[in-house]
Design a protein that fits this description.
mainly beta; 5 domains; nine-stranded antiparallel beta sheet; 23 strands; disordered N terminus
């Protein structure tokens, strides 16, 4: 993974609830290496059960890669200087390389497609083939099957089944869970699956899919096993997902793909690029993410398709004054921060603006920065209904 600058910060095993306020201002070692508290609080709010938070700087003062664990996943998340989630991937599976023959086949056969996931099909405890899911440009998904030597077999066209129920448990508690089918409990016991979280999906035809998730102590790998049963409890498939190959590459405006440059020239002619990021999965660009500043009040985070470079969606940030804040927000500030003085407020609109980039849909969130005294700036982030998501001192 290419990085413009790297600085690793580790916060081990800090588990906090989303309504906990960190009142300790950040004291940077160097200004460009400042720990972005907006990014820290954004992650803590969205993933209150996070563990082992690690930061890598992708673009100094602009963009951070954050790796951490939750109970069921390893997360690879990109957060920018405004506390926006630019990318957010949940990863699990064995750390292995996907056979190059599979990737080559897909990239030659399916133009402008993205490889979503690869899993090993297990039979009699050995690899019997691969199950591969591809996302096409029209957002249609294809499931492809390959044999044990990575040769294409067929495209799978099974219709999706409606879900009847989901049960979350673990290998210690499953035996006493009356909702989980007995044949699932028997399989877990017979195959000595231990120390694992279990997600049990029951479908309308009474077939069952079980995902067992386990992370060994000290390991950087979360291993998952998926077992599918028919309505009689017979195992119809057992697969072991391979961890998704993800990397990120910052890029400068000078190397912006021509299709994206043209889009910006036509739709946002005054825009100045603050950062650009390529998201890559399995050695292929999945998306281009570009943050642009239009003027002193408006900026956009735009996403483009990695294959075709076509526009996908945007997040619009608009600076607003105190009179434009919802009454619930001003009431909260007046009660909790008597005498607050507004420094900056922004409304974040998250939607697909393909037809009109200036279209205003419902606000996703508000960020309010203010002072109580001359020395400390306080930031509070509100959901669109006025409830507090997180807050911190700057």
């Amino acid at each position: 993974m290419k990085k413009i600058h790297t600085y690793l910060l580790v916060i081990a095993m800090l588990i906090v609830s989303c309504d906990t306020v960190n009142d300790t201002p950040i004291t940077p070692i160097e200004k460009e290496l400042q720990l972005p508290q907006s990014a820290v609080e954004a992650v803590k709010s969205k993933y209150p059960d996070y563990q082992e938070l690690k930061f890598n700087i992708l673009v100094p003062e602009k963009l951070w890669l954050i790796d951490f664990f939750t109970i069921a996943n390893k997360n690879s998340t990109i957060v920018d200087f405004k506390g926006q989630f630019v990318a957010d991937e949940k990863i699990s599976g064995s750390i292995k390389k996907v056979p190059s023959e599979i990737k080559n086949y897909i990239y030659s056969k399916y133009q402008n497609s993205v490889l979503i996931s690869v899993a090993e099909v297990i039979k009699d405890k050995v690899i019997d083939g691969y199950k591969v899911i591809v996302l096409q440009e029209n957002n249609a998904r294809k499931t492809l099957r390959f044999n044990a030597v990575s040769e294409f077999i067929q495209e799978e066209n099974k219709p999706g089944l409606a879900l009847l129920a989901v049960y979350l448990t673990n290998t210690d508690q499953v035996a006493t869970n009356v909702s989980v089918p007995d044949f699932v409990k028997k399989f877990i016991k017979t195959n000595a699956i231990t120390n694992a979280g279990l997600a049990v999906y029951v479908y309308v035809d009474n077939s069952v899919r079980v995902i067992a998730t386990n992370r060994a102590v000290g390991s950087r790998e979360i291993v998952t096993t998926e077992i599918t049963f028919d309505e009689k409890g017979v195992v119809t498939e057992l697969i072991s997902p391979i961890e998704k190959e993800i990397s990120y590459e910052p890029f400068k405006k000078e190397v912006l793909p021509s299709e994206i440059a043209t889009y910006l020239e036509v739709n946002l002619p005054t825009a100045q690029i603050e950062y650009g990021l390529k998201e890559l999965t399995y050695d292929r660009t999945q998306s281009y993410d570009v943050f642009v500043k239009v003027d002193d009040k408006t900026s956009y985070l735009l996403y483009f398709n990695g294959g075709s470079k076509k526009y996908l969606k945007s997040i619009k940030n608009s600076k607003i004054d105190a009179t434009e804040l919802p009454e619930k927000i001003t009431t909260y500030l007046n009660i909790n921060y008597i005498g607050w003085n507004l420094v900056n407020a922004e409304a974040f609109f998250s939607s697909n603006f393909e037809n009109n980039l200036n279209e205003k849909t419902s606000v996703a969130r508000y960020t309010v920065e203010f002072t109580i005294d001359k020395n400390t700036k306080q930031v509070v982030v509100f959901a669109n209904d006025g409830t507090v998501q997180y807050q911190y001192k700057r």
